[in-house]
Amino acid sequence: MLGMFFWAFVIGGLICVIGQLMMDVGKLTPGHTLSAMVVAGAVLAGFDLYEPLIDFAGAGATIPIMSFGNSLVAGAMQEAEKHGIVGVLTGMFEVTSAGISAAIVFGFIGAAVFKPKG
């Protein structure tokens, strides 16, 4: 049990360190770093390397933004098998829509409940 927590912490931390190095050393903006991490997750998923990482690291691999790229590719591939080329486009949105919808709803609730400073 402790090993699972340890590896989740280490792998999640390494992903965050890579992102921070991209901004500090590579002088990338946060937007560029975010996009690069999503693309990296999608590329790893395309080569079937992200799922083994999730199996090994658990939340350490599913929480960082790279997991969003993995979700996009996994949804596209799943729906492409069922519906062909149209499934590639619809699958990305179908799989990720719950997370995006939750972010919008909770963001709205947060904006409605709390008062901004300034």
From TrEMBL:
Could you list this entry's UniProt keywords, alphabetically sorted: Membrane, Transmembrane, Transmembrane helix
The UniProt entry, under InterPro entries, shows: Spore_V_AE, SpoVA
Taxonomic superkingdom = Bacteria
Q: Does the keyword Glycoprotein apply?
A: no
This protein's record includes keyword Membrane: yes
User: Which ranges does the record mark as transmembrane?
Assistant: 6-26, 33-50, 88-114
Give the Pfam families listed for this entry: SpoVAC_SpoVAEB
- Name the UniProt record assigns to this protein: Stage V sporulation protein AE
Q: What is the lineage of its organism?
A: Bacteria, Bacillati, Bacillota, Bacilli, Bacillales
